């Protein structure tokens, strides 16, 4: 027996469960299918949330050992209890995934535990988690299956010694030495966690810079700070393989431009070269949807090439970010319900939750130069911000980019403690088409870190007040 729905969503990550929530709010009959034991997708289970729990805990641990004494706080017998640190991470995950389950119930969303696949137009077949199968009839199918770690040819992940981000969040002990392959957001965040807990960390990157896609000036300054913290970087290097020896791993690499192979030893190797869309066994061929060579499913306002089949999140175009997937899920639901759903892809922030944090939105200087856009720049260092100086957290700066003719804010690039929260102010300003002067003339509380955003905006026209 099949059951008929207005919308069936495959995948209960941020894109899927937000789409389901909005569908329920709009009065649609909706079902969501999830193959994991818990809702929330990669983000809540093995991504954003557990990694932030470990970043926060490891940051406090390092601060207690290095910084507290200078603040007049003396601690005797400080030691790491990794089991408890991992437990608090699991508690955070459990609490939030339970919260998603509650939201589904509140909005009358039918949750089905199993693996869903498209079985022709308007049909979704499910291999149920407890055994057996079920078929749903539906007017609309939303693909929200997310992404998975991109494998590196010749390097076999076992999630024990050679790990993906998933394995790196559950190591049983602190490795003496860890090699991170990839200097993107995931590699830098997880590398920072284990460095703070005592590992020697080396980051190997194919490109000649870290954080591809970030503003070049920010990336350069970030590398300098991470190096000062103890992370070693080997840039412009191609990994050719990892040898599994009895007592260690031997990573082999050579210059990306060609040259002699060199080797470095480690106890753990983290492969963090990016993520790829997850479409395995999804039955796309039954409705004529063909992903590109990278596995990405194209969309036109979340519509695929097949009538009644929609797609949101990591599995389609755009940045692989949970908040981008959330916005797409909501917009997709609204379009299905006949409303106006929209996402402004020019105003999707990115955040790296290291210490200091790195955050950006809009255009980089490199992009503006390539597009031939005349722009003005305003910068302000946290070393001149009264709250940052009081807190002894003065690394980093704020950079505002504005159109040279209209003064409209085109981008913002921040590095410093708490900038992942501050970037929201610039996002709101950009959504309203604000100029740098609009931010500069908006009163900010004193003393706060956010004053640095105001001062950088003032600097666009050269009237900074605190330097």
Molecular shape: globular
Give the end-to-end Cα distance, rounded to a whole number of Å.
72 Å
Rounded Rg: 24 Å
Low-confidence stretches: none
What's the β-strand tally?
A: 21
Average of per-residue pLDDT values: 97
Indicate how many domains the architecture comprises.
Answer: 3
Kindly identify the CATH topology of the largest domain: FAD/NAD(P)-binding domain
| Share in β-strands | 25-35%
CATH level-four homologous superfamily name of the largest domain: FAD/NAD(P)-binding domain
Return the structural class: alpha/beta
Estimated helix fraction: 25-40%
Q: List the strand order in the largest sheet.
A: 1-2-3-4-5
Provide an overview of this structure.
This protein has 467 residues and is of the alpha/beta class. The protein folds into three domains: 3-149 and 276-336, 3-Layer(bba) Sandwich (FAD/NAD(P)-binding domain), CATH 3.50.50.60; 162-273, 3-Layer(bba) Sandwich (FAD/NAD(P)-binding domain), CATH 3.50.50; 350-460, 2-Layer Sandwich (Enolase-like, domain 1). It contains 13 helices and 21 strands. It has helices at residues 14-25, 41-46, 48-66, 82-106, 165-168, 185-196, 216-229, 322-336, 365-371, 386-390, 419-431, 436-440, 451-460, and strands at 3-10, 30-34, 110-118, 123-128, 133-143, 147-149, 162-163, 177-181, 200-205, 232-235, 237-244, 249-255, 262-266, 268-271, 275-277, 309-311, 350-352, 357-362, 375-381, 397-403, 409-416. The strands form five sheets. It has a five-stranded mixed barrel. α6 links the parallel β8 (177-181) and β9 (200-205). It starts with a strand and ends in a 7-residue tail after the last helix.
């Amino acid at each position: 027996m099949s059951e008929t729905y207005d919308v069936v969503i495959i995948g209960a990550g941020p894109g899927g469960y937000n789409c389901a929530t909005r569908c329920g709010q709009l009065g649609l009959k909706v079902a969501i299918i999830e193959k994991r034991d818990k809702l929330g997708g990669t983000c809540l289970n093995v991504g954003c949330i557990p990694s932030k729990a470990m970043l926060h805990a490891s940051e406090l641990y390092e601060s207690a050992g290095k910084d507290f004494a200078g603040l007049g706080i003396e601690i005797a017998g400080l030691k790491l209890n990794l089991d408890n640190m991992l437990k608090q991470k699991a508690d955070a995950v459990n609490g939030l995934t339970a919260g998603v389950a509650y939201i589904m119930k509140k909005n009358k969303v039918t949750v089905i535990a199993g693996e869903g696949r498209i079985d022709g137009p308007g049909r979704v077949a499910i291999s149920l988690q407890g055994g057996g199968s079920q078929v749903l009839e539906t007017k609309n199918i939303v693909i929200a299956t997310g992404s998975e770690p991109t494998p590196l040819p010749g390097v076999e992940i076992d999630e024990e010694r050679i790990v993906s981000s998933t394995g790196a969040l559950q190591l049983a002990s602190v490795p003496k030495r860890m090699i991170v392959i990839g200097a993107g957001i995931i590699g830098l965040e997880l590398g920072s966690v284990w460095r703070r807990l005592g590992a020697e960390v080396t980051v190997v990157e194919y490109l000649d810079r870290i954080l591809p896609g970030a503003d070049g000036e920010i990336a350069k300054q970030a590398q300098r700070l991470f190096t000062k913290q103890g992370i070693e970087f080997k840039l412009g290097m191609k990994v050719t393989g990892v040898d599994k020896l009895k007592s260690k791993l031997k990573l082999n690499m050579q210059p990306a431009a060609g040259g002699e192979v060199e080797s470095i030893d480690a106890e753990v190797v983290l492969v963090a070269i990016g993520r790829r869309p997850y479409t395995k066994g999804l039955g796309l061929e039954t409705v004529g949807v063909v992903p590109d060579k990278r596995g990405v499913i194209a969309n036109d306002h979340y519509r695929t090439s097949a009538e009644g089949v929609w797609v949101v999140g990591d599995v389609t175009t755009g940045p692989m970010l949970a908040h981008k997937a959330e916005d797409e899920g909501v917009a997709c639901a609204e379009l299905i319900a006949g409303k106006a759903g929209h996402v402004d892809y020019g105003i999707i922030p990115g955040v790296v939750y290291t210490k200091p944090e790195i955050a950006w939105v809009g255009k980089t200087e490199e992009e503006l130069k390539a597009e031939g856009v005349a722009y003005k720049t305003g910068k302000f260092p946290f070393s001149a911000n009264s709250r940052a100086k009081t807190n002894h957290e003065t690394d980093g700066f704020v950079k505002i980019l504005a159109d040279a003719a209209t003064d409209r804010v085109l981008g913002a690039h921040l590095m410093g403690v708490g900038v992942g929260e501050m970037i929201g102010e610039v996002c709101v300003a950009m959504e309203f088409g604000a100029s740098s002067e609009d931010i500069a003339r908006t009163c900010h509380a004193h003393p706060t870190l956010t004053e640095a955003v105001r001062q950088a905006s003032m600097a666009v026209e050269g009237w900074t007040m605190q330097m």
